[in-house]
């Protein structure tokens, strides 16, 4: 009988594979599912000129905000940054480029990238400013926008549970963009709150097959960034 | 909250029919759920990836991994389901969402909605609003009738960038219930203590009045 390969890695080594200028997908929708520890390590290592793809810009002092504060982000592809005043100010000051996407269309562009497709055709955003500059394709007599697939050099994923092969399971609304992003990058690095032996996640409970994942990092502790936000 | 706003929210709750799949937008719409009776059969959906939303929880009782799309901590109910955000918007775009209730900066008499951007002042991105407005089977708006400066939010044409065209079916305000019809805005119900002339004066487009008595809420 064969065994599945072991992809467990040290956080520092896994993140060191990210070069300057990389396009980086970050899982998460608000706090749940955001890979805070991997982001912290990326800030510590200081890779520059990054294009970041994430649903939102977190809140000030959290997650993506650390990358913005350290000046590591050139461009953000996102759906909503309203909870992070620094992101809004940097956009207004021209310090970062921001490409806004409709939320479900961002999910579909990433999904298409992960599925080896060129893009998706949709009427979402048609006749609004989100349609500007996008190719219009007629399908069955109706206009549709061509939304190009998104792939990244690296995806940073947060899972509740992983095994050494990289099979991942998410919990509750921490799933969000993680499963699509875990399929859409050339290098997929997953952090997990629990690392269990092979077979420790029942096959039916695996949300992302380890075949999509390149590195697995076990979190030694779950920092307060992952906790309940008291507003 | 003013008494008129509270009555608007209570009135809007009656828009939800048993069996519906419903998405309540951030702000006033999320309060509508407080007016549904215990045991009322409805499936509440949120964009990040959940059906079957239960009551909101205070921080000391919250699950750190369980929020709605507005970032509020919520609870599950028996029968809740979690899924990824692509599946969540598949539900919206494919016509499975019976009703969404959204806030608004402006609504035009043909049902155009502007609720995501004030150029030069507020440009945070639309999140999921475009898909909700464009694809929910029925889109209703909850809003104050006028803005903070007292200017009408119901207009002949929107001045702000649109979220979606011709999407709004009904508007609940602190003054009235108004439908968007092929003939423009039609007054259906009026708040206690108001006269139609006051609603007409606060509306930036012609308002059709029904024949006979106006129901009060």
Could you explain how this protein is built, in words?
The complex is a heterodimer of chains A (231) and B (217). Chain A has 231 residues and is an alpha/beta fold. Chain A has a domain at 18-100 and 151-220: Glutaconate Coenzyme A-transferase. Chain A is built from 6 helices and 11 strands. In chain A, the strands form 2 sheets. In chain A, strands 1, 2, 3, 4, 8, 9, 10 and 11 form an 8-stranded mixed beta sheet that branches. The model of chain A has no long low-confidence stretch (mean pLDDT 97). Chain B has one domain (3-208): Glutaconate Coenzyme A-transferase, CATH 3.40.1080.
Describe the global form of chain A: globular
Biggest sheet character of chain B: 10 strands, mixed
Q: What fraction, in percent, of the residue positions of chain A are helical?
A: 10-25%
Under CATH, the topology of chain B can be stated as: Glutaconate Coenzyme A-transferase
CATH C-level name of the domain at 18-100 and 151-220 in chain A: Alpha Beta
Q: In angstroms, what is the radius of gyration of chain A?
A: 18 Å
Task: Tell me the number of helical segments of chain B per DSSP (H or I, 4 or more residues long).
Answer: 4
User: How many H/I helices of chain A?
Assistant: 6
- Which consecutive residue ranges of chain B, at least 5 long each, have pLDDT under 50? none
**Strand segment tally of chain A:** 11
Taking the alpha carbons of the first and last residues of chain B, their distance comes to: 17 Å
The H-and-E topology of chain A, N to C, reads as: HEHEHEHEHEEEEEHEE
Q: Structural class of chain A, please?
A: alpha/beta
Q: Could you name the ranges of chain A where pLDDT drops below 50 across 5 or more consecutive residues?
A: none
CATH topology of the domain at 18-100 and 151-220 in chain A: Glutaconate Coenzyme A-transferase
CATH architecture of chain B: 3-Layer(aba) Sandwich
Considering the protein shown, what is the CATH homologous superfamily of chain B? Answer: Glutaconate Coenzyme A-transferase
